[in-house]
Every structure is written in structure tokens, then in C-alpha cells.
Amino acid sequence: MSIDYIDIGSRIRNGRKRKNMPQEKLAELAALSVQHLSGIENGKTKFSFQSIVRIANVLEISMDELLCGSLVQGKAVMQNEYAEMLADCSPDEVKLIIDLTKVIKRSIREKRTEVRLDAS
Description:
This protein is mainly α.
């Protein structure tokens, strides 16, 4: 599995927004330039391990939360994220989201099967 820089950048941006922190403040606290942080958040700039640790510490986010899209064992983090997303939904919204998720899952699996059959 490769590193998904776009997913990591999106998680950093979301964490920063949850803390109502401007990009300039996070850059300052993480000892990065605003341009470098912007590139990281957009998934266009690679980062050092030291930089991602500083960002995680400033945002008070665990490394596994930031990297879960690139980790084979990231499923538990994503399941928690899904549960948090549903937490403020009405029962009707939860049902709709679950129904849509089932349709998406079925479609993904059907496409995967079609690709395997085409390759045979």
C-alpha cells in the first residue's frame, strides 16, 4: 500500500478546522511555512516524519488517525470516523446513509468481480 498524501492532507485540514485554527497558526506552531503546510493539506507536498509528528501534536491528533488511509490496519480508525459521522444524525438520516452505503458496497464488489472476469 502506498502513502495517500491527499487523504493525509485532508485529515490535517479537517483536524485544523475542527480546532478553528487558521492555516497560518498551525504553520507557526508546527514550525512550517504556510506554503509548505498548504501543499501538505492539498496532498501536493511530501513531508518529513518530523513535520507530521509536529502537526499531529499541535492538532492533538494521533498518528494513526492521520495515516489510517495509508495503513493496512487503519480500518478501526475509519470505522470510528464513520460512527462519529453518524452520531449527530437523525434515525432517518442514519437509515438513509446505511442504505446508501450498502448500495455502494454492492456496486464496488460487482465492479471488482467484473474486472476479474474481464481479466480472465
